[in-house]
Amino acid sequence: MLMYCIMTRLIKVDAVNPDMALIRIAADVILKGGLVAFPTETVYGLGASTYNDDAIRRIYAVKNRPMDNPSIVHISSFNQLYEVAEDIPSELEERLKVAWPGPLTVILRKSSRISEVASCGLSTVAVRMPAHPVALALIRESTPISAPSANISGKPSPTRAEHVIKDLWGKIDLIIDGGETFFGVESTIIDYTKKPPVLYRPGPFTVEELRRIFGEIKVPEQALGLGQFKEALAPGMKYRHYAPDKPLIVTECSSLDGLVKLTLDLASDEVKRGKRVVVLCSSETCSTYVKAGFKVIEAGSRGNLYTVAKNLFHSLRLIDSMDVDLAVAEGYPEVGIGLAIMNRLRKASGYSMVKCTT
Ligand code: AMP
Ligand code: MG
Predict the structure, then answer these.
(1) Residue 344 CA: which ligand is closest?
(2) Torsion angle, CA of 61/62/66/72, rounded to 10 degrees?
(3) SS3 at position 328
(4) Which domain, by its residues, includes 34?
(5) Which of 189, 207, 243, 337 could disulfide-link 200, Cβ–Cβ 3.0 to 4.6 Å?
(6) Is the beta carbon of 151 within 6 A of some atom in ligand 1?
(7) What is the pLDDT of residues 55-101, one digit of tens each?
(8) Which SUPFAM superfamilies match (predicted)?
């Protein structure tokens, strides 16, 4: 197979007050059909103009993303919502004014402006207004931007420009380095064409917040990442995701003592089998594994699960860079953003979960 390498430019901007001259350079790349990786408050996106089919096809080629898995359309205003979607229920705009800009993606009927390529042949479109000054400015200066996460398909999503550089340098036109992303896990997705709306992917916008704004929300087991299921409700649910190259096992237990014991036992069993193990733990528990002689990656604090979410994908990428054969990761309570953390961890492990017996 012939491999093409193109020149990738890297520009660094302040996340809160980006230099508009630099943003306009990136916007020009988008308008000319190029690919730009940019920070959002969730993860880095790999963007192309929603209205340029060739550019969108290139995204799929460089990411090695299946052509039946549509990307989210990122917008910067409510006018653009009406440009890309139609049959929008009258109550929705008011509700979205509470949630947007923010880490919530809504699936709606697509408008005729969204091509078959941009929608992967579906009659619906996933839309989001990101709460990141760089992303918003880039869209404002160009056009609605279709963007999946800026990683090679199946790998952990990028939360730092260095992750994008590792996966996509020489394959895309421009990378905007706006520092570490804020939440570190991808947006919450709900399907608003269903009644009640259905949660497809848990994210930083929690189920508790969704229910406050939208009322009843259906949470199918597919959204929890509990394992293989008969039917994928949305295209993205079919694919393996977020996975490090090395095996990962997730431990789950409702009591913290039980969780630590289970994790220690499992990790020790692997050592007896001659494996070199790293434990993904929390600031509250890591010292126990260190005392037992294990290498550790500290993901964040159980007292603030947002810190765990923020470091999660970086931690998963670290596993592959370490001199170990496999990783054992502690699970987290499925409340608030913990639901998104567990969804990503379970998928990253290829559903290799071990539960405690108590
Ligand atoms: P990513 O771009 O990698 O953050 O993933 C976007 C997710 O949104 C994928 O899981 C897609 O399958 C999902 N998605 C995008 N558009 C639609 C749609 N029209 N209907 C259902 N799911 C969608
Ligand atoms: Mg992705």
Answers:
(1) 2
(2) -110
(3) strand
(4) 9-224
(5) 189
(6) no
(7) 999 999 999 999 899 999 999 999 999 999 999 999 999 999 999 99
(8) YrdC/RibB (SSF55821)
Which atom, in ligand 1's list, is nearest to the CA of 187?
4
The pTM of this model reads: 0.96
Tokens of residue 132, six digits? 């990141």
Cα gap 167→190, rounded to integer Å: 28
Do residues 210 and 113 share a domain?
Answer: yes
- CB of 69 sitting under 6 A from ligand 1: yes
Considering the domain boundaries, does residue 232 fall inside one? no
State pLDDT tens for residues 310-345.
999 999 999 999 999 999 999 999 999 999 999 999
Torsion sign across C-alpha atoms 17, 22, 26, 28:
positive
Task: Spell out a b/e string for 33-52, using b for 16 or more CB atoms within 10 Å of the CB, else e.
Answer: ebbbbbbbbbbbbbbbbbbb
Which ligand 1 atom sits closest to the C-alpha of 237?
Answer: 10
Atom of ligand 1 nearest to the CA of 110: 19
Q: Is 106 in the pocket of ligand 1 (CB under 6 A)?
A: no
Query: What would the DSSP string read from start to end of 162-198?
Result: HHHHHHHTTTSSEEEE--S-SS-SPPEEEETTSSS-E
The alpha carbon of 241 and the centre of ligand 2 are apart by a number of angstroms equal to 7
Q: Is the CB of 156 under 6 A from ligand 1?
A: no
Is 58 marked as binding a ligand?
Answer: no
How far is it, in rounded angstroms, from Cα 57 to Cα 118? 9
149 assigned to a ligand binding site: yes
Q: Are 219 and 257 found together in one domain? A: no
